[in-house]
From TrEMBL, chain A:
GO MF term list: Atg8-family ligase activity
Protein name: Autophagy-related protein 3
Disordered: annotated segments: 307-330
PANTHER family per the UniProt record, alphabetical: UBIQUITIN-LIKE-CONJUGATING ENZYME ATG3
GO cellular component: cytosol; phagophore assembly site
C-alpha cells in the first residue's frame, strides 16, 4: 500500500509543473530559483549548512546539479521532545478523583479529573533503560529466532513504542576480546572523566532534573525542494549517543506530540536510491510559511521605513534574540542585501533569501529539542 | 606531572555507508573478502550549550564514514580533514568472529610505523582499520573499528598548569591568523611559527627547514582536534607525538596547540582551542623501534567487542510499510 502511495507521489511529483512565478509572500510557496537563492544565503551565513549533489541518477533538472539539497550533519539534540510535552497517549490516562468520597450531596461536583495519571518519565534514559535481555550465543537454535523477529515486527506494527524502543540485542556476536589489548593503556582517556572544571563536561555525565543521565543524540538534517508543494521539505536521520542509527520510534520521541505520527513519516529520501529518512510532510508548509512571513514582513517593512527616516541606523537583523553583541550580524545582513544590488528606493520587506531562515524557525517548533535553528546561536 | 590522556576516536557510520556497502557487496565484491581502501573524515571537536543548565556539553570525538567513503575521490564535508583507512568485509559471521584480529591490527599499525620511519610522512598517521560483516537479509551490519595509536614509554606528561585556553597563551591575533590560513588550506597536522605580528603555518614534513631559525619557545605543533573535552586532546595527537619521538628525539619538550575553532567565535563566544606544553623523559630504547599500539574501539557496553547497526527499521520494506499506515 505504502509502495503504491510512494509511486503515486513520484508520478505526481514528475507531472506537476515547476513553479515559475515568485509568489512567496502571497501564498508561502517558492520557485526552485528562490530555493537556490535562499539556500545560498543560508550556506553563506551559517557554515554548518552546505549544498549536496545527491545521487546522480536522482538529480532534479530544475535545480543546479551541484545544488540539489542542503545538508548539515551532527545537529545535537540534548533532550527528548516527549519529555517536554504531554502526548496523546496521556489523554487516555484520565482518572476521576472523588475528594468528597461519596459525600452527602452525591453529585458530580466533587469529582475531579486527574489527567496524565500514572505518567512515567520516558523510559529512554540511561538510568531507566529498557530491559535488555541476556545476550544469547549466536549458536542458538535458528528457528526460534525467526519467530521472535516476527513477533518484534508485530509489536512494531501496533506502535507499541515501549517495545520498539528496546534495542534488539539478540544477535550481537558473543565475542568480547578483552585480552586483545594486553595492558591497560594509561594514556587513553577513560570514557567518563570526572569533571573537575565547571567548564566543558562530557556529555555522558550531565544530570537532568530527575537525576537521569542526559543522552545526546545527533541528527543529520537535509532540506530538499518539494516540487509538488513548492516548498522546502525537511528530512532527518538520527543517531543515539553510541552513534547507532535511531529507529523510527526513537526519532518520533524528538518530534513534538502534535506532529509525531501525523505529519512526520519515514519515507524514501528523494536524492538517494535506497536511503530512508524521517520527513515532515510539506502539505501545510506553504500556509504556515505565509502566516509567518506576513507577520515578519510587517515588522521588517516597519524597520525599513524607520531606517529610511533615520538614514543612519544600521539595518537590523530581523529575527529575535537580539543581544548587544549582534552588531557583526547586522553588518553581514546589510552587506548581503547590498550585494544583491537592491536599491533603497522601495520598501521591499522580507526578502526571499530569508525564506529558509524563517523556515528553520518553523521547523524548530516541530522538533523543539533538535537544534536545527542555528540562526539563533549568534 | 600528570600523564596526558587522549580522547579516543568514536566511529560514526552514516546509514548511507551501509547502503553503499550493500550495493558493493552484491554488485562488485560478491564473495571477495580482500582488504579495500576507505576514507573517513573528522572535524574539530564541538560542544553545545545546554539551554536549560547553561553548561557546555562536549559532543563525541567522531570519525565519520558515509556513502562517499568507498569512492576514490571523495568530497570532504566543510571544515573536515581526511583520514584514510582500510576495511575488510567478511562473508559469514563465523569468519568475522574467527578473524585474526591481532594480525590485522599489527598489519595496520606496522603500515603507520613504516610511513613514519621510512617516508617521514604524516598522511597515514590517522589510518584506521574496519572489519565488517553484512547480514543483508536481516539488514544488520556488524562492524569493529580500530584506530591504531602508539603507546609512548615513558608517557607524555603535561606541565603543572595543565591544558590552557589557547587565546590566553598565544593571543587572539595568532589564532585569527591560523584560522585564516586554515580556511584556504585545511590539514590534519601543521606547524606554527611567528612571522612579525602574525604567524605562518607549515607542514610537519618540513619541520627542520621551517623551524630552522625559530627558537624552541616559539615552535608550536598543532593538529585538528576532534575532541571537545577540556583536558583530553583527541586521538590524532598520539601518533603525532610518536612521529616526533621517532624522528625528532632531541626535542623532549613540545608546545602543542589543539585546534578546535572551525569558525571564529561570535562576539560573545570564546575560543575553544587548547594549548599545553608536553614533555617526556628520554626513551630507554632506540627511538626507531616500533612501540606497541592500542586502539580497538569499545562497543556500547564499554567492552572490547564489535558493534552492530540494525537498519531493519529503516530499510526493511515490510516494517516500513507498517510504519506508514
Amino acid at each position: 500500500m505504502h509502495a503504491i502511495q510512494q509511486q503515486y507521489w513520484a508520478v505526481r511529483d514528475y507531472l506537476s509543473p515547476v513553479l515559475k512565478e515568485s509568489k512567496f509572500k502571497e501564498h508561502g510557496r517558492i520557485t526552485p530559483e528562490e530555493f537556490v537563492a535562499a539556500g545560498d544565503f543560508l550556506a553563506y551565513k551559517f557554515g554548518v549548512w552546505s549544498w549536496e549533489k545527491g545521487d546522480a541518477s536522482k538529480t532534479r533538472e530544475y535545480l543546479p546539479p551541484d545544488k540539489q539539497y542542503l545538508l548539515t550533519r551532527g545537529v545535537p539534540c540534548l533532550r527528548r521532545a516527549t519529555s517536554l510535552a504531554y502526548t496523546d497517549a496521556d489523554e487516555d490516562a484520565e482518572r476521576l478523583l472523588n475528594f468528597g468520597d461519596s459525600s452527602a450531596t452525591g453529585d458530580e461536583g466533587d469529582e475531579w479529573v486527574e489527567t496524565h495519571a500514572g505518567r512515567n518519565h520516558t523510559t529512554d534514559t540511561a538510568v531507566n533503560a529498557g530491559v535488555i535481555e541476556d545476550i544469547p550465543d549466536l549458536d542458538g537454535p535458528g528457528e526460534t529466532e525467526g519467530v521472535t523477529s516476527a513477533m518484534g515486527g508485530l509489536n512494531f506494527g501496533t506502535t507499541s513504542a515501549a517495545a520498539a524502543e528496546i534495542p534488539d540485542m539478540d544477535e550481537i556476536p558473543d565475542m568480547e576480546e578483552d585480552d586483545l589489548e594486553a595492558e591497560d593503556d594509561e594514556a587513553t582517556a577513560a570514557p567518563k572523566v570526572p569533571a573537575k572544571t565547571p567548564g566543558v563536561i562530557d556529555a555522558a555525565e550531565i544530570e537532568v532534573a530527575k537525576g537521569n543521565l542526559l543522552q545526546v543524540r545527533t541528527y543529520d538534517v537535509m532540506i530538499t525542494y518539494d516540487k509538488y508543494y513548492q516548498t522546502p521539505r525537511i528530512w532527518l536521520i538520527g543517531y543515539d549517543e553510541n552513534r547507532t542509527p535511531l529507529t523510527p520510534a526513537q526519532i518520533f520521541q524528538d518530534i513534538s506530540a502534535d506532529h509525531a505520527l501525523k505529519t512526520v513519516t519515514i519515507e524514501a529520501f528523494p536524492h538517494s536510491t535506497s536511503l530512508q529518512a524521517a520527513s515532515v510532510h510539506p502539505c501545510k508548509h506553504a500556509s504556515v510559511m505565509k502566516k509567518v512571513i506576513e507577520r515578519m514582513n510587517a515588522g521588517v517593512v516597519e524597520e525599513q521605513l524607520a531606517q529610511r527616516k533615520s538614514k543612519e541606523g544600521k539595518k537590523k537583523w530581523p529575527f529575535g534574540r537580539k543581544t548587544s553583541g549582534a552588531g557583526k550580524e547586522d553588518k553581514n545582513a546589510a552587506a548581503a542585501a547590498a550585494a544583491a544590488g537592491q536599491g533603497e528606493d522601495e520598501v521591499e520587506g522580507l526578502r526571499v533569501d530569508m525564506y529558509l531562515v524563517v523556515f528553520l524557525k518553523f521547523i524548530a517548533s516541530i522538533v523543539p529539542t533538535i537544534e536545527v535553528d542555528s540562526t539563533t546561536a549568534f | 606531572m600528570p600523564i596526558v590522556q587522549f580522547a579516543p576516536f568514536s566511529s560514526l557510520v552514516q546509514p548511507a555507508f551501509w547502503h553503499e556497502l550493500t550495493n558493493l557487496k552484491i554488485d562488485v565484491l560478491r564473495l571477495s573478502d580482500e582488504i579495500l581502501p576507505i576514507t573517513g573524515s573528522y572535524s574539530v571537536g564541538r560542544s553545545v550549550k545546554d539551554r536549560e543548565t547553561g553548561q557546555e556539553i562536549a559532543l563525541g570525538c567522531n570519525l565519520t564514514i558515509g556513502s562517499e567513503s568507498l569512492e576514490k575521490r571523495s568530497q570532504l564535508p566543510p571544515h573536515s580533514v581526511i583520514a584514510s583507512g582500510a576495511f575488510k568485509n567478511f562473508n559469514t559471521i563465523e569468519d568475522f568472529k574467527a578473524a585474526d584480529k591481532t594480525a590485522l591490527f599489527n598489519q595496520a599499525s606496522e603500515e603507520i610505523w613504516d610511513s613514519i620511519i621510512t617516508k617521514k610522512d604524516t598522511s597515514l598517521l590517522n589510518k584506521f582499520f574496519l572489519i565488517t560483516y553484512a547480514d543483508l537479509k536481516k539488514y544488520k551490519y556488524y562492524y569493529w573499528f580500530s584506530f591504531p595509536a602508539f603507546v609512548s614509554k615513558p608517557a607524555w606528561e603535561i606541565g603543572g598548569e595543565g591544558w590552557k585556553d589557547a587565546d590566553g597563551e598565544l593571543g587572539v591575533e595568532v589564532l585569527q591568523s591560523i584560522h585564516r590560513n586554515l580556511q584556504s588550506d585545511s590539514r590534519p597536522f601543521f606547524l606554527v611559527r611567528p612571522a612579525g605580528n602574525s604567524v605562518e603555518i607549515g607542514s610537519i614534513e618540513d619541520h627542520d627547514q621551517f623551524f630552522a631559525n625559530v627558537p624552541p619557545t616559539s615552535q608550536t605543533l598543532a593538529f585538528i582536534d576532534p575532541s571537545a573535552l577540556p583536558d583530553n586532546p583527541g586521538w590524532p595527537l598520539r601518533n603525532l607525538l610518536a612521529y616526533f619521538r621517532a624522528l625528532h628525539s632531541s626535542s623532549t619538550q613540545l608546545r602543542i596547540l589543539c585546534w578546535r575553532d572551525a569558525e571564529l567565535p561570535s562576539s560573545t563566544g570564546t575560543w575553544k582551542s587548547r594549548f599545553g606544553v608536553l614533555s617526556a623523559g628520554a626513551a630507554g630504547v632506540d627511538p626507531t623501534t616500533k612501540p606497541s599500539a592500542v586502539g580497538w574501539e569499545k562497543n556500547v557496553q564499554g567492552k572490547l567487542g564489535p558493534r552492530v547497526a540494525d537498519l531493519a527499521p529503516m530499510m526493511d520494506p515490510a516494517r516500513l510499510a507498517n510504519q506508514a499506515v
